[in-house]
Each structure stands twice: as C-alpha cells, then as structure tokens.
Amino acid sequence: MKNPAVFSPQEAHMILSTLCYLQQEDQYLMLHRVKKKNDVNKDKWIGVGGKMEEGESPQDCVLREVKEETGLDIENPILCGIKQFQTDDNCRYVVLFFKTNRFSGELKSSDEGEVFWIPRNDFNRYSLSIDMEDMLKIFESDNLSEFYYYIED
User: Of 33, 134, 147, 25, which is closest to residue 85 (Cα–Cα)?
Assistant: First the structure.
C-alpha cells in the first residue's frame, strides 16, 4: 500500500549509515551517548555506527565506525537488516544493520560516548534509544530484515 505522504526516492536526498551490534556470549556492546550536544540519543544507550563517507562502501564504513567508537577491529560483519525513515527535511535516511561476534583489540570509549558490554537480559534497566527494541528484533531474527517509518495521515 503506497502512502502518499512518503517522499519519492527520485526527489529525496539520501543519507546512508551503518549500525553494528557486537555480541559476546549473552552481551551486546553498547554506547552510552553522553558527549554529543543536541542529539536525540543524548543520555541513551545505542549501538555503534555512523554515516558513510563519500566513496566508502557499507563494509568499510562499519569497520571504520566500530574502530573509531570502540577501539575494536571487527571481522566478518554480517549485513542483517535495514531501517529507513524520512527526516523532517524530506531526506531519506537509510541505516544498514550489521552484526558480528568476531573482533580484536582493546576496548576504549570515544568522543561519541562510553562503551560497555551489557547482558541482553539487563536492557530493561537502561534508557535505550527510542526504537532499540524494534532494531533488536531485526538483529536477532532470522525472519525479519527491514523496518520502515512513514508518516500516516
């Protein structure tokens, strides 16, 4: 069903980004976003990732972003889903989801925030990003791969 309030891909500016969840046994590596001002996710717990740079592939982006935000080098990031939404300024924002349990290096925080391993069963104790539970359904499912926000009339 086509929603007339949704923008045309041919007319919209697009932002591409990546989001990666690193898993270690029953824990996920989470970033506590405390250092960025004017951020919708300030003081929230989120995954790691960010916007693709010009000429960068999705895999190169996720490798770079994880290294910058966590100090870790990931191996074999698996593309496992996609999230799409329209911003207030008619921009199409596309987030490519990756996951991995293969990494090396020394864990360290960055100017994006503090990073911690958090058991999945303890997530309800934390202030997660607005749609974290929806994103986790995509990351943890073998049957789901996409979710899309749209404006309803």
Answer: 147
- pLDDT tens readout for residues 131-148: 888 888 888 988 988 888
**Structure tokens that stand for 104 in this block:** 């090396």
pTM (global) more than 0.90: no
1 Cβ neighbours under 8 A, 6+ residues apart: none
Residue from 63, 28, 50, 44 nearest 95 by CA: 50
101 contact partners, CB below 8 Å, separation of at least 6: 22, 23, 24
C-alpha span between 5 and 150 (Å, rounded): 8
Alpha-carbon span 120 to 28, nearest angstrom: 7
Beta strands 78-86 and 27-33 are unpaired
pLDDT tens string 76-92: 999 999 999 888 787 88
| Strand, coil or helix: 130 | coil
Burial class (CB in 10 A: 0-12, 13-18, 19+), 114: middle
The H-assigned helical ranges of 18-141 are: 58-70, 132-140
